[in-house]
Amino acid sequence: MNGIHDMGGMQGLGSLEYEEDEPVFHARWEARAFAISLAAGALRKWNIDAGRHQIELILAADYLRMSYYEKWTERLIRLLVKSGVVTPAEVESGKPDSTSTKSTPPLTADMVAPGTARGGSARRNVQVAPRFRAGQQVRARNVHPSGHTRLPRYARGKTGTIQRDHGVFVFPDTNAQFLGEAPQHVYSVRFEARDLWGEQASPRDSVYIDMWDDYLELI
Amino acid sequence: MREFGLDLTEDVAVRVWDSTAELRYLVLPERPVGSEGLNEDELSAVVTRNAMIGVAKVALPKHSERA
Fold first, then answer.
1. Which of A26, A89, A206, B2 is deepest in the core (most CB within 10 A)?
2. Complex-level ipTM
């Protein structure tokens, strides 16, 4: 969706603020928000792409006001309610309703360290024919889906060159809507900075964007 | 990059990786002049997060320069 999260190329956001030696968590609640989000993910009621879409659905004014882990918490509440794990009334009261069935997470403490070390790959070992090959000129499709997409707005309609084929990965656009993984090739596509940002950009500069097959068309 | 404190000359080509997929990139920082004799521990002591995301150069503390 064309939401506030897709900020590439936006101006008017003020100067960059960053912390020297930024801590992983600024407060204990942030660590809890992170841990609860991962633990709830083990319920397997949603996937990473559906989760990201829930963050995009936060109203723009709220999105800009909220800190990183506030957004995580908001996402988690929305996912838990949407998937029926908790009710809005339970979120409001902070207490389980006596009539609710209890979800037993299939996750115990001893499973966490090996699980996080293993990670979760979006790569799929399936044979899918690539639609493009390195060196080809391609155009990013000018599409504006209302659901989740990883195709940045600033690249749509722009022309680039396939640099390399990364292999086959889950397609976030369908996966976010629980419409299947639609595994397909992901390419690193090089765009000249001037093709994206006009004459003010340096002719030496470029942007490499990871693009799924369905984001691209042959010129 | 200027806001990160990195001023590059016009002859430097900037290549930005927009990590839109489940692929993550590390930047191999440019080796600072005078670091040739440093061992792995000494090098890891001077590298920074910003250097590995490509918005800073690695600076050597004065005492470790061996050029």
1. A206
2. 0.87
